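Q: Convert this sequence to structure tokens.
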Amino acid sequence: MQSSEKAKELYRRPTLFSSFDELVAAESTRHGGVSPEPYASLNLGLNTPDDPENVTENRRRFFATLGISADRVASSHQIHGVAILRATEPGRFDGYDALLTNQPDIYLAVSTADCVPILVYDRRHQAVAAIHAGWRGTVGGIVSLTLQAMQAQFDTHPGDCYAYVGTCIDETSYEVGPEVAEQFGPNHKRIDSFSGKAFINLKSANTRQLTDFGIPAAHIGISTFSTVLDNKDYFSHRHENGQTGRMLAIIGIQPR
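A:
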């Protein structure tokens, strides 16, 4: 994390990546922007009803604190699917929930407001991935599919990877219906013994895909924050009844 107070307001950098000077990796907070309620204040979502000029200024501020240019960012309109894009150039794409690249100076970004962002760094091959996983993407194995794509395209090996499971809705806040609960294994859901209601743990379900691929537990960082319990710092689509902003999680390798 940068030392300035402004940078601290705008984003948090995963401790896991702090020793990699070549890497830009961060997830935004909701602080330091210009958007009014209910999008206050650092709304980075391009597909929200917020004034586009506000979002443009917020994104400018966020990227500037990271020392990168907005025209070097690759992102996509996400559809809660499992399609993966190998980004060979920056830009705004459509229909992908995961992006990967081995090209420096391309910064991959995914948008969230309860779903979990996962950032992956292959240190040996200098490749990165950014993944957006809601319950559909999690059940569809989007993390596993992305890691397999990195292995096929970049010769990525599990022991060379570092992965961060970012801020999302926590298990105690993520009640789901039986049609969703039945798609998760017992290690990633809790059934309340009194009410019979089901609750899903997106962090653990996606972490399991990382460890199943073979990434060492010591190479995995998991956010301690919740979009609901820490709503003063993060946007939550569910807690704020859909009227809220979006965060970005971003990763990329700086040019030498």
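The longest strand covers residues 116-122.
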